[in-house]
Inverse folding.
């Protein structure tokens, strides 16, 4: 992390986009170390942001005594139909909002790592003058994991926004997203982590890690009842297991 500390030492302070994930947590912890009180970690909550991620960010901020706040923003106009460039527009509007919290000499920062350099959200960051210290220092996942282990943080499950649960070009219905969120929360409460409930116009396709398939089958009646009570016509379990980006078509 020496190169990261060198980059941060060249700044007077900053606002960090804090999703509650391992990368942004690492950046927040380093900002606290380098800047003292001259930083702010901000978790942005859009209508399609999973409440679980916001609560996770709050818990981590409290645990590490971070300067933290949650900022609620409305649905960006560009995302009303879940277009393919959703990450670009989401990050664009987020970074524009975060710039309002900077003080003199501060910069807005985000925690993408070196292996994520081609992601569309980074174009929005660069357009808005946001700094990506890990990419600039060529820091990857291995260094992040090592650092978090040293400060006593176990692996943090990755999470994505609820827009990834519906097909692209599908008009976004907030009520449907909330139902998907409640079903995923139900599964987590029953010990099934890393879950995605994908919506296919009335049919819900549940993706979980293969190691949890047996656990899911044991409570399949409960899962179906919960799904039906939320208004889903069909509740299915994807036997192929969890697959990142399976709705990107």
């Amino acid at each position: 992390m020496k190169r990261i500390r060198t980059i941060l030492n060249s700044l007077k302070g900053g606002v960090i986009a804090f999703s509650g994930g391992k990368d942004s947590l690492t950046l927040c912890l380093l900002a606290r170390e380098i800047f003292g009180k001259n930083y702010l970690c901000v978790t942005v909550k859009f209508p399609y942001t999973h409440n679980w991620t916001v609560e996770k960010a709050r818990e981590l901020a409290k645990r590490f005594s971070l300067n933290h706040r949650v900022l609620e923003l409305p649905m960006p106009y560009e995302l009303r139909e879940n277009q393919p460039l959703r990450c670009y527009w989401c990050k664009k509007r987020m970074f524009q909002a975060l710039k309002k919290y900077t003080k003199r000499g501060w910069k807005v920062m985000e925690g993408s790592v070196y292996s994520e350099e081609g992601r569309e959200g980074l174009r929005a960051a660069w357009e808005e003058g946001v700094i990506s210290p890990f990419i600039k220092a060529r820091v990857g996942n291995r260094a992040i994991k090592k650092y978090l282990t040293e400060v006593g943080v176990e692996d943090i499950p990755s999470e994505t926004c609820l827009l990834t649960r519906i097909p692209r070009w599908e008009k976004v219905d907030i009520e449907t997203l909330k139902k998907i969120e409640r079903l995923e929360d139900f599964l987590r409460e029953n010990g099934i982590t890393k879950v995605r409930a994908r919506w296919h116009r009335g049919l819900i396709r549940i993706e979980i890690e293969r190691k949890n398939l047996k656990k899911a089958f044991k409570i399949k009646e409960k899962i179906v009842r919960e799904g039906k009570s939320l208004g889903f016509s069909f509740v299915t379990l994807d036997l192929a297991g969890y697959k990142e980006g399976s709705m990107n078509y």
Observations:
- DSSP finds ten helices and seven strands in the chain.
- The longest strand covers residues 39-45.
- The mean pLDDT is 94.
